[in-house]
Design a protein that fits this description.
With 189 residues, this protein is mainly alpha-helical. The chain is built from eight helices and no strands. The longest helix is centred in the middle third of the chain and has 25 residues.
Length: 189
């Protein structure tokens, strides 16, 4: 027999539509053409995946101090994993290969999150170097600096939101337009 009051000890699950709205904003922002045309992010599956990870990291970072933020973070991460799983299957990846790919996605997320957290604490240039390595394939330090400036602006804008507004998904990402060149900066430096 189930205890009739066990729902009192369980954390309140965030509404699915809130998770879908926030995740939808992350994906929409990651697809913003200015990242690819103006900041030199490779317009590839990997480049788009890295932009989703960057935006997911910024949102999850903002959720850390929010009351019940751990549950919202977990629900958002679970939604991300479900989306990646569905995308792999849609691309025709076989059932036996999906778990291995998902493990690699998880490793990529946690590795980049740790690198970005450490770099953010160290300053603007280390963040630019981390973004250059992970998103820009080691190229375009000026693009990486612009992308780091964008990330810092997003982190600042998200920090300026009250917890209720943020937790309800009633906000938008800042535009990358002020940080994007009309033409991407090229070159190995």
């Amino acid at each position: 027999m189930l205890w009739p009051f066990n729902h009192f000890s369980k954390p309140h699950a965030p509404p699915r539509r809130t998770i879908e709205a926030i995740y939808g904003m992350i994906v929409a922002q990651a697809r913003e053409p200015l990242f690819y045309a103006g900041l030199g992010v490779p317009d590839t599956v990997n480049g788009r995946f890295d932009m989703v990870l960057l935006h997911l990291w910024m949102v999850l970072r903002r959720l850390r101090p929010v009351a019940d933020g751990a549950h919202l973070s977990q629900a958002l991460f679970d939604h991300f994993c479900g989306d990646m799983d569905a995308n792999l299957r849609e691309l025709g990846v076989g059932d036996l290969a999906v778990p291995k790919r998902m493990q690699k996605f998880g490793e990529a997320f946690y590795g980049r999150s740790a690198a970005y957290d450490a770099a953010l604490e160290a300053g603007a240039e280390p963040l630019a170097q981390a973004l250059r390595k992970n998103i820009l394939d080691g190229r375009g330090i000026e693009n990486a600096r612009q992308l780091a400036a964008y990330a810092n602006a997003v982190i600042g804008a998200l920090a300026g939101l009250d917890d209720t507004t943020f937790g309800n998904g009633a906000w938008q990402f800042p535009s990358p337009a002020p940080f994007a060149s009309l033409r991407p900066v090229k070159g190995p430096a």
